[in-house]
Amino acid sequence: MHRPAEDGTPAEAYWQTRLDLKAEGKVRAVGLSNHDVAQLDVAERLAIVYSPMQAGLLSGSFTAERAAGLPADDGRSPSPEFQGERLQRNLTFATALGPVAERHGVSVGAVGGPARPANPAPAGVRN
Q1: What is the residue extent of each domain of the chain?
Q2: β-sheet bridge partners, residue 50
Q3: What would the pLDDT profile of 16-26 be if each residue is shown by its tens digit?
C-alpha cells in the first residue's frame, strides 16, 4: 500500500485484506509506505513491514552511482541513507548478503528484505 486510504477505511481493515490475499496465495508479498509512526506500529502488529528493502538499497542492484543520479524529486535523494557513510554502510551490507543468497540459490533481494526486521525500529523512523 503506497499511501494510507483517503476514503476513511481504517488502516487495519485494508492491511488485513492484503494479508488475507497473501495467505490465499493471490499475492506474493505485502508492504506499505508513506504511513505515519502510529500506523506503522499497527502494521507491525499485523506483521506488515515498512520498506523491507530499504527503498531499494538491499535489492543487490543499487550502487553509489545510482544514488548520486537520483532525481531531486525522488524521495530517496535527500535521505541520509542514500548519502555518504550511511550509503556506503548500506551498500556494504547488501554486498555481504551476496554469499548468503548464492548459498541458498536466491537473489540478494530475497535475503535483503528478511534481513531488515533484525532492527526493531520501522525503517521509516530509523536514525
Answers
A1: 1-50, 56-115
A2: 32
A3: 888 888 889 89
Q: Is the pLDDT of residue 7 over 70?
A: yes
This prediction's pTM: 0.50
As given in the structure block, the three cell numbers for residue 28 are 506474493
CA–CA dist 4, 8 (Å, integer):
9
Residue 111 near residue 98 (C-beta atoms within 8 A): no
**Euclidean distance between the first and the last CA atom of the chain, given in angstroms as a whole number:** 23
Three cell numbers, residue 62: 543499487
**Whole-angstrom Cα distance, residue 52 to residue 65?**
22
> For the residues of the chain, what is the DSSP string, one character each?
--S--SSS--HHHHHHHHHHHHHTTS-S--EE-S--HHHHHHHHHTT-EESTTGGGTTSS---HHHHHT--TTSTTTT-GGGSHHHHHHHHHHHHHHHHHHHHHTS-HHHHHHHHGGGS-S-GGG--
